[in-house]
Design brief:
55% helix, 3-stranded antiparallel β-sheet, single chain, 3 strands, 93 residues, elongated, Pantoate--beta-alanine Ligase, Chain: A,domain 2, alpha+beta
């Protein structure tokens, strides 16, 4: 009986951990998207950092290459990278 209870508690802990990791990844993606868009619109690393913080993340990397802003944001143990460019969208012809 004790072994069954211990196994159930262990399984529940694993499920909670997996859920937390999935939540962190989703929050990291959202924070990275917000940071990239803010940086593209404002043109500053400070805007990216502030957007990441407002969305529960920490800005780890900020790059601007050929007019594209790329950021990497961390939320707890999850990281996400996002890119944004300010201007009209280009469509394939």
């Amino acid at each position: 009986m004790v072994l069954v209870l211990a196994a159930a508690i262990g399984a529940a802990a694993v499920v909670v951990q997996v859920g937390a990791v999935a939540t962190d990844r989703a929050q990291a993606r959202a924070a990275a998207d917000a940071a990239a868009l803010a940086a593209a619109a404002e043109g500053t690393e400070g805007a990216a950092r502030e957007a990441a913080i407002r969305n529960g993340g920490v800005l780890e990397r900020y790059l601007v290459i050929d007019g594209q802003t790329e950021v990497t944001v961390r939320v707890r143990h999850a990281r996400a990278t996002s890119r944004a460019v300010l201007g009209p969208m280009r469509t394939a012809r």
